[in-house]
Please model this.
Amino acid sequence: MADAHTRNHDYHMVEPSPWPALGALAAGLLLIGTVLGMHGYTWVVAALGLLLVLYTMFVWWRDVVREAETGSHTKVVQLGLRYGMVLFIASEVMFFVAWFWAFFNSSLFPTAEMGGTWPPEGVQVFRTWDLPFLNTLILLTSGTTVTWAHHALKEGNRKGLIQGLWLTIILGAIFTCIQAYEYSHAAFAFNGGIYGSTFFMATGFHGLHVIIGTIFLTVCLIRAYQGHFTPDQHFGFEAAAWYWHFVDVVWLFLFSCIYWWGSGAAPVAG
Amino acid sequence: MNAQSHAHGAHDHTPSGWRRYVYSTNHKDIGTMYIVFGLIGGLAGGILSMLMRIELAEPGPGILGGDDQIFNVFVSAHGLIMVFFLVMPTFIGGFGNWMIPMMIGAPDMAFPRMNNISFWLLIPSAILLYASPFVGDGPGTGWTVYAPLSTSGHPGPAVDMVIFALHLAGASSILGAINFITTIFNMRAPGMTLHKMPLFVWALLITAFLLLLSLPVLAGAITMLLTDRNFGTAFFDAAKGGDPVLYQHLFWFFGHPEVYILILPAFGVISMVIPTFCHKPIFGYLGMVYAMIAIGVIGFVVWAHHMYTAGMPINARAYFVAATMVIAVPTGIKIFSWIATMWGGSIEFKVPMLWSIGLIFLFTVGGVTGVVLANAGIDYALHDTYYVVAHFHYVLSMGALFGIFAGFYYWIGKMCGRQYNEAFGQIHFWLTFIGVNITFFPQHFLGVAGMPRRIADYPDALAGWNLVSSLGSYLSGVAALWFLFVLWHTMTRGEKCADNPWGEGANSLEWTVPSPAPFHTFEHVPTIRSSAGGH
Model:
């Protein structure tokens, strides 16, 4: 067994790190603090926890980027990261299944309390082909611009990559602004009944994912300026693009189910 | 199975002292932390169950004063702790972390740093859950946290703490599932094809998929609970157009796969143990693999059999009855394959084998009562009685727990380098086997007689079997104390364990490395050459 001590693999043996334990502490502070806040004590602990969560994410992923730049991410490690991202997105899909389940539970089987119709009696919904449709077009366009960036990257065209990313991020930000504008003009309330509950929680979690995806793409833009990505190794960008497409697809379902099919023949606002 | 080469323990820059564990990126150290965490959870949950049996030993107010709210706080904490802080961390985080990389010939997990946060997220989760009974009236909701009892019925912070404990434990498990699936798909040694993987690896792979796809739905459900409780949404509030039964659907869409998450790793463990001690390969390896896959898949489409009495259309009930009973087929394939493995083998009745045979016997009892309960018509009478309690304790506290003990005795020599004492281990098995049967078998009779769950008292007519059940639980408590002694004895007095203490029956890769397994195994990845793996 002469060669028993020689390393013959390309896996990444990660060095010990304080960030996982710090991240768990941060998550604990955030949630314990939220219990305190919700029951009227203080939101300070939750705010502290949130800052610590964000700090942990920053330093943790900073380490990952450094490891990628110093050669730890071999082909097999990159493949592992791809598996990981696909599986993470699969779990996110199942998270949205819960919100769609709640929506269809009420919209397919309206109870007497909501007047036996969907949307419930008295609820004025948004005009499907107004801002929601505009937002659909914006998000779909952003899906094409991120693909543009990807193709530019694969052909070693850094300028094209940066242009595509800028456009994608701007379109994502416009989507978020329009969504915020729409929220502020809603004719139904978050706490006013089942329509507002399903609408705001489903589209709200989607909006949160758009914001996260926009930040992810922004990190990629910064890394693109720093010359991190090569035509052969750019998993960080790929993960962001996959995430962005996932967010895009969730929106298509939200738009066609909640804004379009779910608007029924109800009176519309605005 | 042959391995070209194995262990190696040089060149690690591991921090020492507390940093070794808190900063760990080593699958064995993280696995050890999980097992210690699981042991603490098991003791805490066990103490709660003993206190409940003391309360129920005689009719009338007992040690808990006959207070139903306190009793139900104990029920909730016992259930949640046993599921999330005993079985899942010990099987998946503990044995999975320790054994999966070694069994597939990988040097570590795919994402070692994420592996560590999977463990450490359980600490704030445990703090929230363990503290919740002491806040206000505590969470008297059961582990299912059904609305509206958990919304309008519990205005205090305790239920919010339970919700967040589940969020954290869920995030921990989802990250763990991503890690296990990626490790198994991406890091198998050359020659270790999927159809050669040891059955424990298969069991954990399928378990990880169930976790990945079911826990996010629970996260959604308890987030709805949270906003209903604190921010005025109406998901489960019928007066505002919501639907409390929606919560039951979402919960059990997670909850039913969850019970397979608890038992599949036990199937995996005894599928390693039985061939080892019968000195012959597992019967029907591929059938065993695809039976587990079938159990996992069908497990996603049977959830509403937990909700027959919630008011369902007759066609839906008919479907869920039929689908549920279909699961008995792959389960039967597994039971008979284990028996066929033993058939004609030269069986050694060592302690891991005793636990495995105990599991087959008692899990089958629980499986058969499961088929009874799958029938909506019978379930109308038995729903929420002690018959259900007896059923799921036969599959869990005898199925899953026996699997944990089988794995513990099987691998403790490999993990700590010292072997348990055979006689002491056998005493532990028989004390537990007798104790749990005396505890839970009479609960079938109590259930058929109509004794409801989650009530701190019962009519005098049921006093006899309740006393027997309580006495059985005291014996199980003695068995648990005896286990602590065995653990201490093994750690301090146990004999040095050989690399492979079990002989030629044990031929998965972990037995090719020294005992205790060195800090790093398979920095030199082995090549798998034999034709059939896992046995």
User: Anything to note?
Assistant: Chain A has seven helices and no strands. Chain A touches chain B through 69 residues (CB under 8 Å). The helical segments of chain A are 19-38, 44-69, 75-108, 131-154, 158-184, 194-225, 235-260.
